Amino acid sequence: MPRSSVIVPLAFGVAFLSTLFPFAGETPRLAHSAAALRSACPSDMVRVRDFCIDRFEIATVDDRTGEPLSPYYPPHPRLVETVFRTWTLERTLVGPPPTRAIPLPLLPDIQREQTDFRPRAVSRPGVVPQGYLSQWLARKACENAGKRLCTEKEWVTACRGQQERKFPYGDRYEAGRCNVYRAQHPALVLHNAAWYGHLDPRLNLVVEANGDPLLRATGATPSCASVWGNDAIYDMVGNLDEWIDDPRGVFVGGFFARGTREGCEARIAVHGPTYFDYSTGTRCCRSIEASARSK
Length: 295
Fold this sequence. Notes:
By secondary structure, this protein is of the alpha+beta class. The chain contains 8 helices and 15 strands. 20% of the residues lie in helices and 18% in strands. It has a 4-stranded antiparallel beta sheet with strand order 3-4-15-7. The chain has a 4-stranded mixed beta sheet with strand order 13-12-11-14, with no helix packed on it. Strand 1 and strand 2 form a beta hairpin. The longest helix is centred in the first third of the chain and has 14 residues, at 77-90.
């Protein structure tokens, strides 16, 4: 879909990307072999040993209509209403004066007018991945797509790649190879406090002054690819934290502003399954047997 955006300069050497929904970034050039596409996994997933995993962090669509849902709000009727109402006022009260004037991202009609939409996970290149996911919402989105949350063992195995490395690209941390440990924190930019207002729908629209978004489109960091055969999985380290199937509530991989050099071993286990903020996303898994039966 076409993209319309305006870079609004802010302080701290960053800017704000005012973009019409949905964001459609440049589609990365992916070289997936015919054999990979004929594997036991759906075409939007990569085979890793005895399971399939999404090639990209998920975006969401309405399960009934297929209409895209905004990645900047929780994909749940009650939660999206609460967040939108709260931040319509809150944005005018906190942060530097220039940021208070920045409007909230647009909501699709289905999220403004319908009370029965349900999120379904889709794995696509070149789109803004869905943030603001609780583990419960992440699980439902995957289940509505005929998939499931990954176990931690599956997720770490996929992230390490066929060569079993600590990072998708090797065994040592290399700054900039994945979208993690960024110099700016969006809450500091918008609110003057990195700890405040993590449900602000504008947080994932902050970009550096050169136009590089803090949250990048799926697949936009090709140097952060976990290689499996002639295929690859993108952004498993950085971009968004990703919920996994752990009843205690665990997300892994780090997000763009998290100061971690743990690569595929990065994990956060201090929040429960109902927690969500701008940095929490997911990707889905599927058992090979389930994928084969569906074909």
